[in-house]
Amino acid sequence: MKEKNITNDYNSLSLEELTKEANRMISDLESQKNLENSIENYQNLLKLNNIIEKKFQKDVKSINEKTKDSILKITSKKKQDVK
């Protein structure tokens, strides 16, 4: 599977779903007897890991922005209440 295809297939999934897929891939790799067959699967797992990292970073950034906005709203409301 090409990297673009992996990215497109996984873009719509949540972090939890991506993590479950990574865990499934790890279980498959652990049960492999032939290491030659495992190389492509391991490379796909690494690509999936990168996708998860990027999605996690994006989600963290979004949470930080929402938190900052909420704090600003609360502090501005408190300032208005004090006046």
Could you give a short description of this structure?
With 83 residues, the chain is mainly alpha-helical. The protein has helices spanning 3-10, 15-31, 35-82. It is rod-shaped, with a radius of gyration of 20 Å.
How would you describe this structure to a colleague?
With 83 residues, this protein is mainly α. It has one domain (3-82). Helix content is 88%, strand content 0%. The protein has helices at 3-10, 15-31, 35-82. Helix 2 packs antiparallel against helix 3 (35-82). The chain starts with a helix and ends with a helix.
Topology:
Layout: H1 3-10, H2 15-31, H3 35-82
Helix pairs in contact: 1-3, 2-3
Question: Notable features of this structure?
Answer:
mainly alpha, single chain, rod-shaped
| Residues in helices, as a percent range | over 70%
Number of helices: 3
The tally of structural domains comes to 1
End-to-end Cα distance: 62 Å
Strand portion: under 5%
Q: Encode the helix/strand succession as letters.
A: HHH
Radius of gyration: 20 Å
How many E strands? 0
SS class: mainly alpha
- The backbone outline, from C-alpha atoms, is rod-shaped
What number is the mean pLDDT? Answer: 86
Low-confidence stretches: none
